[in-house]
Amino acid sequence: MTYPNPSTALASVVVDELARGEVGLVLASPGSRSTALVLAAAQHPGIGLHVVIGERSAAFQALGWAKATGRPAAVITTSGTAVANLVPAVVEADSSGVPLVVVSADRPPEERGVGANQAIDQRDIFGRFVRTAVELGPGEEHPDAPRWWRSTVAQVLGIARGFNGRPGPVHLNVAFREPTVTASHDGRTSADPYPYDHPGRPGGAPWSDIGGSAVADPTAVERVAAELARAERGVIVAGAVGGAAEIVALGERLGWPVVATAASGLRSTDGVVVAGHHLVAHAEPDMILRFADPGPSRRILELVSRPIPQVVVAESWSDPARTASLFVGASPRAVAGALLSTVAAREATEWRAWWHRADAAVVELLTEALAEGPLTEPSVAWAAGALGADLMVVASSMPIRDVEAFGFSVPPLVANRGASGIDGFVSTALGAARAFPRTLALAGDLSMLHDSNGFLTEYPPPCAFVVVDNGGGGIFSFLPQHEHVEEPHFERLFGTPHHRDLSSLAEFHGVAWQKVTDRAALEEAVRQAWEAKESVMAIVETDREENLAEHVRLNRLAAEKVASIPPPAPPSSPPA
Hints:
This protein has 21 helices and 17 strands. It is an alpha/beta fold. Helix 3 packs across helix 15.
């Protein structure tokens, strides 16, 4: 097979190897220099290509899909500032360990540094936020060149999955000379047909099948087991561990409670503590075993900041309070599984029983309190988590904190908590919804406004958007600024009222909407999205000061309930 020109050959081989490497979704935005890439992706049967108007939104949509599926997703851009628009999504992918593949089209070397239009130095534009940055092209007329291209793409995908390190974003910068359309002469430039082809491995296999390692180091596991043997009243904190049931089984074996954060994917699993946010301040453990990041709860953050022995198992460094006495850089699932066959089983203790007794009591009390009256921000988080979604996408700021505190039965969850920004929420949710049709996206008004251009995508998937509209930045009512910044500065600088009706935003983007005030209406709006297979925006309007008072009330109720169930006294002597 021959190709009309070298750029077409290069793009066709790159896209084919992406497909062989199980990159099932590619997002792209309009551009000229990327023509050969997007044409190759559009014509490849193994690639699902979707076009998004803005590059930033395209990158976050790819990020959402990759987070939801665990598989690499790619975003294709043209040259120049288009690439710079990907930085926020790349930063989040770096922080949260998501295999995001950036394929940027570039100008050839002779057009760089000479004032040519749309030509910047984009080879290392993402700096340390990518696991690797590799350049290909321009298409070289050499019989072995297609093999070199395939090998490079396979290597980049392997690094994205975590080969020799942690999964994360990678950058493949591909330089193209014109013509980039499927012609040897495009009316402006010409090139000879490219005579060399390389069909790849038989059976659609990748050129090199490279993956990350989830094997736990035996020596590290032995050290963790020795540390655990020294403690009796331990607590396991499960962060974003992808629903690792091994962690729950380990808690049962040790006789320790497993505090399941909202991001753990474990809250629908029997045998875990789901109201840990309300319990941790009332207990005095003698050791903490933490898997992955601790989540947004300030109370859990205070727990893992205590000066007691703490073992941390995570795929990247996670010790913000500098309290870890032992850190194991490995897969939480792999380490928990290895510990199950290493540590000795212990008898059930009153310590673990207290956690579950107090947990059940708090959940029952708060469920009754949250079910009363009109919707509030805490009751939205509680109700949304119980509506039967296959996946929840939760925005940063107050939504994720409310889900942490009141979402007792949340399904698997995606949250851009790596860098904790509100950027890219709509796009992240739509990307995840391409993989899980029954997706519920919970956001605040500012998160929705910040990325409303994410709706400018072709063939948007159905997604149930639940938006809490408190007219600005509600989280600042819970921060020191609320007490120490006087008006009018607080409202202007932190409250940031937007004075926009979100229903008008929904109509502009062709999204069905409802303003809801009770749980029944919320359920109806979400059901409409899933049954009609369309996006629906359920808008819950709240007041920031009333929301602050409601949080104070609920937290007081929970604290009083836990105080009425005192934990067992610590043993008089440490275990042998």
